[in-house]
UniProtKB/TrEMBL annotation:
Organism: Lentilactobacillus hilgardii (Lactobacillus hilgardii)
Record lineage: Bacteria, Bacillati, Bacillota, Bacilli, Lactobacillales
Keyword annotations from UniProtKB, A to Z: Cell membrane, Membrane, Transmembrane, Transmembrane helix
InterPro entries: DUF2179 (IPR019264), N-reg_PII/ATP_PRibTrfase_C (IPR015867), UPF0750_membrane (IPR051461), YitT (IPR003740)
All residue ranges annotated as the DUF2179 domain in the record: 230-279
Protein name according to UniProt: DUF2179 domain-containing protein
Length: 291
């Protein structure tokens, strides 16, 4: 077996292991956020866990005892089917692991009131859950449930996942206000905003930047850049200070790829000048890497 093939196999196994660990971490974080913080604040999470919390409360009002974990399982079944159709097994399998780990930890971790202040519980719970969801998206899979829809909208229409989540979870807020009062809806809204903010901060693949490179080795650099999904444009120029030919290479990449491309460029030209600028992509043939 060639060295490159061996490295590819090891890299593939490492990616699988990393994703499995992240899926389990999400399950733990989500369960901690719900059982130890949001539940005691009577605040609801985003997505399927939030809907499960809401249904659990409504059923309890009618003397029906159905666990949040059981509701999470039932509500995720149609979403798993949709995920298989849209994204395939490679994406869906880790989402399933995330859902299963969440259900397991919801059963293991008891509902406790660690903090008395309702707003503190809401903020802490929202931050913990947002970190867990953001890690899943950052590693190329969702947490199941409504995140499947969020993933599709994000990739298809390039909307930030936090923004899309707020739109989808308006249903939870409306139902909370109707059945449990405005106070619960306000705290739930606050938690959802915090969760969405953390998701956007962790999931940096959805952020694009403009990479500008000034180099005297543009031909060699172009040969390497052709191997990647992002195109680039070369402008011939001349430096004012030394009056030497210096080309400018411009490309759009994802924020998560900055370190990789920086190392690639400096291997080719140690004297290259690199500038990174934030950008909002409006139109064009641009491909994002999500996996």
């Amino acid at each position: 077996m060639e060295k490159n093939e061996t490295l590819t196999i090891y890299r593939h196994r490492y990616n699988w292991l990393r994703k499995l660990i992240v899926a389990v971490i999400y399950g733990l974080f989500s369960a901690i956020g719900i059982n130890l913080f949001l539940s005691s604040a009577h605040s609801y999470s985003i997505g399927i866990p939030g809907i499960a919390q809401l249904l659990h409360g409504l059923l309890a009002l009618n003397q029906i005892n159905f666990s949040i974990a059981g509701l999470v399982v039932l509500l995720n079944i149609p979403m798993v089917i949709i995920s298989l159709i849209i994204f395939g097994w490679d994406y869906t399998i880790f989402s399933v692991v995330a859902v299963i780990s969440n259900v397991v930890f919801l059963k293991i971790i008891p509902e406790e009131k660690l903090i008395s202040e309702q707003i503190t519980n809401t903020l802490v719970g929202g931050v913990i859950i947002g970190i867990g969801i953001g890690l899943c998206f950052r590693n190329g899979f969702s947490t199941g449930g409504t995140d499947v829809i969020v993933s599709f909208v994000q990739q298809r229409f390039r909307k930030n996942i936090g923004f899309v989540n707020i739109i989808i979870n308006g249903f939870i807020l409306g139902a909370t206000a109707i059945f449990f009062g405005i106070s619960g809806a306000i705290y739930s809204l606050l938690g959802m905003v915090v969760t969405s903010y953390m998701m956007d901060k962790i999931y940096i693949q959805q952020s694009d930047v403009m990479l500008i490179i000034f180099t005297k080795k543009s031909a060699m650099l172009a040969n390497h850049l052709r191997q990647y999904t992002h195109g680039a444009t070369v402008f011939n120029g001349r430096g004012i200070y030394k009056n030497q030919e210096t080309d400018m290479v411009i490309t759009i990449i994802q924020k998560s790829e900055i370190s990789f491309f920086k190392d690639l460029i400096l291997k080719i030209d140690k004297k290259a000048f690199i500038s990174v600028q934030t950008t909002d992509l409006l139109n064009g043939n641009y491909i994002r890497n999500f996996y």
